[in-house]
Design goal:
heterotrimer; B: about 290 residues; alpha+beta; Uridine Diphospho-n-acetylenolpyruvylglucosamine Reductase, domain 3; Enolase-like, domain 1; four-stranded antiparallel beta sheet; 12 helices; about 25% strand; globular; C: alpha+beta; Aldehyde Oxidoreductase, domain 3; Aldehyde Oxidoreductase, domain 4; seven-stranded mixed beta sheet
């Protein structure tokens, strides 16, 4: 029987191993730490924003094993063994991802605080459904709150991305 | 002494549990509710068990007479599963209407029941589907109906603090249809103000063997015998009878709540919509039956 | 100049910060921990009205490295964080920390440590004993309970505006119609919560804050710390939204005081709950409006009586209340008017500036009233408004600035045609319980402070660099709306310099000139015009200097320097002028606007109301705005979409309710429901661009006005759908169901 635990009297720590933006990483995390804390504080991935701390605004959205999750309600110890993708991991060789470029071109960015989370939710949608309808996009982004844009140009950007990826014909 | 454990099997969990004695225990499923409730005030001598690495708590499979649904399955895995869609449509509806995509990707069906929120979505659906929960504890394994687990106290269920929900068993019943719907304050991502789950046998447009559960009337899901009876009424009277019965049921459950007038109105909308869903599903069931037999 | 020949004006230039923002590399304050800074966790009161009897920090201070400052340490100086210039007579009733908590979330102490976790943990170990006093939660009875909340005993802060012969108007009226409308207390919900960093640097105290008025922050800090303004340097930090929530000074003074006292950098950051409970809100208003009409529906006079809920401190709420009154005479022709507002303090989260600065409230009140009045009297709501709306260059009888090139009549008539108002006038029923109808509302908002009690001018410097690029040194506060990019477009249009080579600075009180800040919808109209004028001055200087240099006449033509028919390279010219004439092309310009026209908008909404669930779905939406000229059309559209999102929320779901003990019922987004993507319509937008005099290239404001008519348009549509007279916002499902139940049954 194999028990993976590290117990220190009075404090709880667990050593986790995870993949972040393609690289294997390890971290010591406490019971009350959240995935967002690990990403921001331990790995400097500050694209991951805290807007509510309750899984209600989506600013902290990252992709975990291909699925969008709110990193503020993922216990850090549950990220052990998983694959995390943040906005910082979207660029390849300094080139923006199509979705990032579409957000720029459609003027889907205002204050920018919700933008990384919004992009990750949209990215997760497009990974599963490369030709989403406008309604499917709305549902995929329902957990991402934006106070600036009224979502219209964001939804445009997701549609534009889908068109640019070229799988679907409109 | 405090501890954080991530057991890799039920067996491992069992031995850890045995060693944890009288310490306060936390079982962490998807963590979505747990973190919000407990972050920052986990007591110093608590023992935490992460359930996410236990394979026995996973899986959705058709075992002939029932669907086995691991308690750690997420809302997303549930509502995208073809077996659930086919045999437990109400659960599919409930899982797909809970929270946002991000929350559905993390929140588990076991956690939803264990958390005992009166506004929970999946317990009512499971109850209406006549599902049972297999509960595991150091003293043994037991199978309880969802109603038995839910109990009657708001924000509390009948599970003891070393009980773990292992799996759900949802009976596979020919000719049965089911549906769930909720009303929140937004069309998506909203806590239910009221929800309704129904399953029934469908034959030539008529219903029988109905089970009707209403959520958020004080507790997560309460069974309404009057609404079940109303579903047996002749088709011409059924809709109005069902609405009226549910209205009366709400009045019986929360007679003095200020929210009653609203809930009585909203439940009529749910009654109309859920009935429509059941009828549509019944018709397509008959159609597919004809096809497969023909 | 022919519009179509513009190089940048009206074009969708990409905002400067877009690339960083999509890469997640646009750092907000919380993203860049400052070396050696203490994290400050504020100890907030859990009670609505309570006096601290005992505060015990012993356990908390046993944690190593923890610093604690309580109300006992704090200066007694009272200030009003809405003031941005000395002499503004806003009643000061706030202190940096307090021993008398006046709302849940009031500031009792500041607990600091090297990490957030430690600071918060220590904060939670501070033991406070309170004597709990009765909460003051109802604005209607707040004046009578004033002494319980504030020792000053001031019952209310009243103001009025009056003109014309109101008595005659009402006595000669064929109809007198009255309604009372209530608008809710609302959370701004900028996605970035409130944060501030203060750094002592020698004798200068540096404060970095995502704010809207750096010079106001500087002034508040100077007052409380009793320091010269020149020794306080306020730098506008990157901002994740504000909507007025970061316009007033909230945590800046506390942070600056603590840093100054400890001689260490202090960073305060807040959670969503803390931002909701402890910062600012949109003031809740209960307004009674009464209108006197003649027999054919011409407005003869109008009177208002309003109670405005300031929350626990006066803040800028009296300013907001007066701003509401100032807007009342700038939409319709109202020969006689009486406006009486009373601002009261309650033991709830303070109010303050919020997108529109009272305009959403006053226009929600009057536009819902106008629709209900028209229905009761049998007037067509479009025709009624067309008859009474102001035409171009009419005077504001209350003494405000001329309304300018008003195009509100065009907005309404074009909007009504485009939305199919006539065809869709009658409500439709489907499925027994779904009622569909359309509604609309008109509105106005301002363009700066000219002819108000506040001064308005802007001062900028433009330097043309030796490589042909340019820097506009301006005290801009980029809120996310794209203002800095829009100003660069203006500079680029005038100078011909490629917009990518233009840098527009944000405010830094040490290096950029005085400016009243990003408020009052003044940025495009006032600052934008200043940018245009400073650019013209720079071009003029450049041509003069180039002429001297070459000893031949040099002209500026079609975006470039021309000398005897030959184009000159701008960078080379600047370089040579600097080299040979020892002159740099740098111009400072101060623009003092002599106009403050009105912007106008009319919004149409089609909604479907489920009479059993009370849920309202916005199916179709049209926003039509008189904006003079779009500087960047895509930015304008973005502002309008966002304004609609905010206004639908105010109409249907957003409110911050408190129970009778003053305990907030909402603390986070689980119960505070903003409109999310599935409930947001895809609005159609029509812009009327007819060149407003006094604005850069004819442009005027859009950011605030875009949210002003939304709530009334939605409520009017719901009321038409149900035949109801709902006036208590938001129209929650329970209220809608109750109204539907009373429909002709």
């Amino acid at each position: 029987m194999h028990i993976r635990l590290a117990m220190i009297v009075g404090v709880m720590f667990l050593k986790i191993e995870l993949k972040i933006n393609g690289k294997f990483r390890t971290a010591e995390v406490s019971a009350s730490e959240r995935l967002i804390d690990v990403l921001r504080q331990k790995f400097g991935l500050v694209s991951v924003k805290e807007g509510c701390g309750a899984g209600e605004c989506g600013a902290c959205t990252v992709i975990m094993d291909g699925e969008a999750v709110c990193s503020c309600v993922v216990p850090a110890f549950q990220a052990d063994g998983h694959d995390i993708l943040t906005v910082e991991g979207l660029e390849e060789n300094g080139e923006l991802d199509v979705i990032q470029q579409s957000f720029i071109d459609c003027d889907a960015v205002q204050c920018g605080f919700c933008t990384p989370g919004m992009i990750m939710s949209a990215k997760a949608l497009l990974m599963k459904n490369p030709c989403p309808s406008r309604e499917e996009i709305r549902t995929a982004l329902a957990g991402n709150i934006c106070r600036c844009t009224g979502y219209v140009q964001i939804i445009d950007a997701v549609e534009t991305t889908a068109a640019r990826i070229g799988v679907c014909r409109r | 002494m405090t501890g954080l454990f991530a057991p890799r099997s039920i067996e491992e969990l069992l031995s850890l549990l045995a060693g944890s004695g009288e310490h306060e225990k936390h079982f962490i499923a998807g963590g979505t509710d747990w973190l919000i409730k407990n972050r920052g005030n986990i007591s110093e001598d608590a023992v935490l068990f992460d359930l996410s690495k236990i394979p026995e708590l996973r899986g959705i499979e058709n075992r002939g007479s029932y669907l086995r649904l691991g308690s750690m399955e997420t809302m997303t895995s549930i509502h995208t599963d073809p077996e659930i869609r086919l045999h437990a449509a109400a659960l599919c509806d409930a899982a797909s209407s809970m929270g946002s995509v991000q929350i559905r990707n993390r929140a588990t069906v076991g956690g939803n029941l264990a958390n005992a929120s009166p506004a929970a979505d999946t317990p009512g659906a499971l109850a209406a589907l006549n599902a049972s929960a297999v509960i595991f504890s150091p003293s043994g394994t037991k199978e309880l109906s969802i109603e038995e687990v839910l109990g009657t106290c708001p924000n509390k269920n009948t599970l003891s603090d070393s009980d773990i929900i292992m799996e759900f068993r949802i009976p596979v019943r020919k000719s049965h249809v089911s549906a769930f719907k909720k009303i929140g304050s937004r069309s998506e991502v909203s806590i239910a103000r009221i929800n309704l789950a129904v399953s029934a046998k469908y034959e030539d447009g008529a219903f029988c063997d109905a089970m009707v559960f209403v959520g958020t009337l004080g507790t997560a899901a309460k069974r309404s015998p009057e609404a079940e009876n109303a579903l047996l009424m002749p088709i011409s009277l059924r809709k109005e009878g069902f609405k009226k019965a549910l209205c009366e049921f709400a009045g019986r459950m929360i007679p003095s709540r200020s929210t009653l007038p609203y809930k009585q109105s909203a439940i009529q909308a749910l009654a109309e919509d859920v009935l429509e869903m059941l009828e549509a599903r019944g018709r397509s069931l008959e159609k597919s039956g004809e096809k497969s037999h023909g | 100049m022919d519009k179509r020949s513009y190089k940048y004006i009206g074009r969708n230039v990409t905002r400067f910060d877009a690339v960083d923002k999509v890469r997640g590399r646009f750092p907000y304050l919380a993203d860049e921990p400052f070396p050696n800074a203490l994290f400050g966790a504020v100890l907030f009161s859990p009670h609505a009205n309570a006096v601290v009897k005992k505060i015990d920090v012993s356990e908390a201070s046993r944690i190593e490295g923890v610093e604690i400052l309580t109300y006992l340490d704090a200066p007694n100086a009272r200030y009003n964080g809405s003031e941005w210039f000395p002499g503004q007579d806003d009643y000061p009733d706030e202190t940096v920390l307090t021993g008398h908590a006046r709302h849940v979330g009031d500031r009792i102490a500041l607990v600091m440590a090297d990490t957030e976790e430690k600071a918060r943990k220590a904060r939670d170990l501070v033991r406070v004993e309170y004597e709990i006093l009765p909460a003051v939660t109802l604005p209607e009875t707040a004046a009578d309970m004033a002494g319980m909340l504030h020792e000053d005993g001031v019952k209310s802060f009243d103001g009025s505006i009056c003109y014309g012969d109101l008595e005659k108007a009402f006595s000669s009226a064929a109809y007198i119609e009255s309604d009372t409308v209530t608008t809710p207390k609302i959370h701004h919900a900028a996605m970035e919560t409130h944060s501030v960093l203060a750094i002592p640097r020698g004798d200068v105290l540096e404060v970095r804050t995502p704010c809207q008025i750096t010079f106001g922050v500087q002034y508040s800090i100077a007052q409380v710390l009793d320091m010269p303004l020149s020794k306080i340097r306020v730098i506008k930090a990157n901002m994740g939204g504000t909507f007025g929530g970061k316009q007033e000074v909230v945590f800046e003074v506390l942070c600056a005081w603590a840093a100054n006292r400890l001689k260490r950098p202090v960073f305060i950051n807040t959670t969503r709950e803390e931002t909701i409970l402890s910062t600012r809100t949109r003031a809740a208003v209960k307004g009674k409006v009464e209108t006197a009409l003649d027999a054919d529906g011409t407005i003869l006079g109008r009177s208002f009586e309003l109670i405005v809920d300031a929350g626990a401190y006066l803040t800028g709420t009296k300013k907001v209340m007066m701003a509401m009154g100032k807007k009342a005479s700038r939409l319709y022709r109202i020969p006689a008017l009486s406006y009486k507002g009373s601002v009261v303090r309650t033991s709830t989260t303070p109010a303050g500036a919020c997108r529109g600065y009272g305009s959403p409230q006053i226009h929600t009140i009057t536009e819902i009233h106008t629709d209900l009045m028209c229905r009761r009297l049998g007037f067509d709501p479009v025709q009624f408004r067309l008859k009474n709306l102001l035409g171009e260059f009419e005077e504001d009888p209350s003494g405000g600035a001329n309304i300018g090139k008003a195009r509100v009549i065009e907005c309404l008539s074009r909007g009504a045609a485009a939305f199919g108002w006539e065809e869709n006038k009658a409500p439709k029923v489907s499925g027994g319980r779904f009622f569909t109808a359309t509604g609309f509302a008109c509105c106005t908002h301002g363009n700066g402070y000219y002819k108000t009690k506040y001064h308005d001018f802007s001062n900028m410097s433009l330097r043309l660099l030796e490589d042909g690029s340019a820097i506009l040194r301006a005290s801009i506060h980029e809120l996310g709306s794209g203002a800095t990019t829009a100003l660069a477009q203006i500079v680029g249009e005038v100078t011909g310099i490629d917009v990518s080579k233009i840098t527009v600075t944000e405010a830094d009180t040490q290096f950029t000139s005085y400016d009243s800040g990003c408020q009052a919808s003044r940025v495009i109209y006032v600052c934008g015009e200043c940018a245009r004028l400073v650019s013209e001055a720079a071009v003029k200087m450049l041509t003069q200097e180039a002429s001297k240099l070459l000893d031949r006449p040099v002209r500026f033509y079609e975006g470039g320097l021309v000398c005897e028919g030959k184009k000159l390279d701008l960078g080379a010219a600047v370089r040579e002028i600097m080299e040979k004439r020892r002159v740099s092309i740098e111009v400072n310009f101060e623009h003092r606007p002599e106009s403050n026209p009105a912007s106008f908008g009319v919004h149409f909404a089609e909604v479907t109301v489920d009479k059993l669930t009370g849920l309202v779905k916005v199916n179709r939406y049209l926003a039509i705005h008189d904006i003079g000229q779009a500087i960047n059309e895509s930015f304008v559209r973005g502002q309008i979409y966002g304004g609609i999102q905010m206004g639908i929320g105010m109409a249907l779901s957003e409110e911050l309710p408190f129970d009778s003990m003053g305990i907030p019922r909402v603390r986070n987004f689980d119960k505070y429901h903003l409109v999310n993507a599935p409930d947001m319509p895809d609005p159609e937008i029509i812009l009327i661009e007819d060149n407003e005099p006094g604005g850069p290239f004819g442009a005027k404001s859009i950011g605030e006005i875009s949210t002003v008519p939304v709530s009334a348009a939605i409520v009017n549509a719901v009321n038409r759908a149900l035949g109801s007279s709902l006036t208590d916002l938001p129209l929650t499902p329970a209220k809608v169901v109750e109204a539907a139940r009373n429909m002709g049954e």
